[in-house]
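Complex 352.
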Amino acid sequence: MMRAPTFRYHAPKSVAEAAKILREEGPTAKPLAGGTDLVPNLKRRHQTPSVLVSLRRLDELRAVTSGGELTLGAGLNLSAVTRTGELGPARRALTIAASKVATPHIRNSATLGGNLCLDTRCNYYNQNYEWRQAIDFCKKAPGPDGTAKQEVTVGTCWVAPSSPRCWAVSSSDTAPALIALGAEVTLVSAEGERRIPLHELYHDDGMAYLTKKHDELLTAVHLPALGEGWKSTYWKLRRRGSFDFPVLGVGAAFRFEGDVVAEARVTLGAVASYPVSVPTDELLGKPLSDEAIEAFAAGAARPAKPLDNTDYHLSWRKRMCTAYIAGALKELRGDPPGLLARTAARLPIAAS
Ligand SMILES: Cc1cc2nc3c(=O)[nH]c(=O)nc-3n(C[C@H](O)[C@H](O)[C@H](O)COP(=O)(O)OP(=O)(O)OC[C@H]3O[C@@H](n4cnc5c(N)ncnc54)[C@H](O)[C@@H]3O)c2cc1C
Ligand code: SF4
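Predicted structure with flavin-adenine dinucleotide bound:
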């Protein structure tokens, strides 16, 4: 049995108290939400915080407020997010993404904030301590003394040995969906609070993947009002439809005037160390014809640089980017999604 290392535990009753503890305890303290990512990571010694600050008793993190915009508390579990009626059909991308995270059991504990702060993933990292010890660890993983090598560029990257950086993959399902929906987040520390566009929460770096400071809590996710003509969706590629992490996620939100595209946002997940938003100018001011979709999908897949550190053959994953982007857009224009997904999944597994 794998056991978690020793830690001290706080269970504050307010966000202000939690922020104060995080400030006083310093960088070796970590927030604990549902624990569905952090606890396995503790057991495998990916992280060894000396202090855990539980967010379970913070009722304020489970609030839902709607007016012009919709605000979801970061402590809502993902099952609750899928049941949030205020999301409505225009923000369906979030409902789909949340409903495709892990299993129903895990979604009952896993929170929205934890999903947005999810650790980046890599085949050489998401292994137990002994497995990683056998390959002499890597840049991102803790060394034998339990000290994360995150501050210094030492150790090998087994995915790209000559690379000075870590390429672990951003694997959150809700992040690409929420970025496509134009979400912002509130971060609270003992010093005060700030609100930033969600895409600014992420760095293109497998180790320092979040821009938030160690003592900042993510407290809320804000979704802008989406008026008439908005539609959104989320497409997820994974080996087992029942609970695997994404090896590709496509979040797309479009505003149509009639059949003409007036606004468009597309964000890819699990293709880099951060959620990648792609320019959509070429789609604006015209209907989504087959030709327009195919040309856009081929270009939009270009920034996706799958490496050999997640599931599936990387050249097939690259081909699936094009297929899934096209599938998501065809769904938004009204094509039947079931048929599209089946067609995409039949692409041959061959290097292109
Ligand atoms: C079998 C299995 C399958 C999974 N499949 C998927 C999947 O398909 N898609 C997917 O996206 N995830 C998946 N996960 C990962 C995980 O369950 C989810 O990402 C979940 O939403 C994480 O939320 P949590 O509340 O459990 O976070 P925790 O594990 O509590 O925390 C995760 C990280 O976020 C930090 N954190 C949490 N809340 C806050 C906050 N409010 N402010 C600041 N920092 C915070 C923690 O310190 C920690 O670093 C899977 C996990 C398992 C075990
Ligand atoms: S990408 Fe390289 S450094 Fe990062 S976790 Fe994987 S092997 Fe380690």
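Residues 148-153 have pLDDT under 50 and may be disordered.
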